[in-house]
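Trying the structure run again after the queue cleared.
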Amino acid sequence: MGAAALVAAGAAAGDATADDDGALSYPRLTVEAELSLQSEKTVGSRAAKKIHDTFAEVEVGAGLFVTEWLSLQSVLKLEPVRVATESRAFEDEGAFIEELYINIEHDWFRLYGGKFNPPFGTAWDRLSELFQRGFAEDYERTEALGIGGAATLETLSLGTHTFGATLFHADNSFLSNSAFARPRFGNEDTDRVKRTRRSQGGPGNTHDFSSYTFTLDGDQFPMLEGLSYHLGYSRLAKGVTEARAEKGYVGGLQWAFDLGHEMTLTPLAELAYFRHFGGGTDHATHLTTALQLDWREWSLVAARTGRHVDEPNDGSGTFGRDYTDTLYSLLLGYTFDFGLKAQVAWKREKAQGEPVIHALGARLTYELHF
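Done. Tokens:
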């Protein structure tokens, strides 16, 4: 695989050198890779096809550090770029550059520019890729061109807080090209188009930097150990096919409780609200709740995501009425001492206009650091 070759090349070049006193020397290259294998099967549905889908995902992050504070960061991905409509195994895999940006980071501030993923929401990142992210991925912001920055305030009594801001538009440059599988725009099974162009429309897909996010994150509270929060605002400008700009608001909490005997219980909740969801006339509310129990190498996670959509009162929406989609999942995971993570999960998914689906899945993930 091309991505595997890239990992090997990065490993060869990524050996950090140090001076006699142990200080790192520059320039230097670091590489991190996450290799995943996932297999899932629909096991219960009255109307949907009972299909089996097996695929690989590779994510390679590389950083070329010119100095301690100046670097070039990149993330390359290999994953399915079409939705499975029939049973398949290792098909429709596409490779693309997800991030490529210059990063300046020193002490309490950070500035970056290029192609990056604007921060907004956390549920799609904190939960497992195996069934649990579900509808929360609706508001994951990826592959944007622009600039961003963050400032961190550390206090002894009130914790650590980071304010971030970005200004961007969707990547519709040559950097959006993909290799191997390259789905056409407009095909029903296309999950990621082979190349994004402004004429295709979509929220944030403009020629100017008129989309932006603001975020505030906090943790390390002395009196509330294990608590972290996330707040965010997002505006995606209307593209050529949208009626309005999409405005989003998100707030999330996560609190890890030490139960003793090497056990940790972590509840998570995140609420996101969108006006003119997707640039249309609908408004949408996403609520994700999860409870995770960790014991030594084991983890058990129960999660629910709901997506409530308010359609126009005149019945001009897709279904002519308000509706709620739901996703329930239960996951069991084990991490081996050599770094391999194994997970099995079940889900029940109900989306408006689609049959109720029950599915089982398994995922293996291994991380490499160079």
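The first helix runs from residue 2 to 13. Worth checking whether this holds up in the mutant runs.
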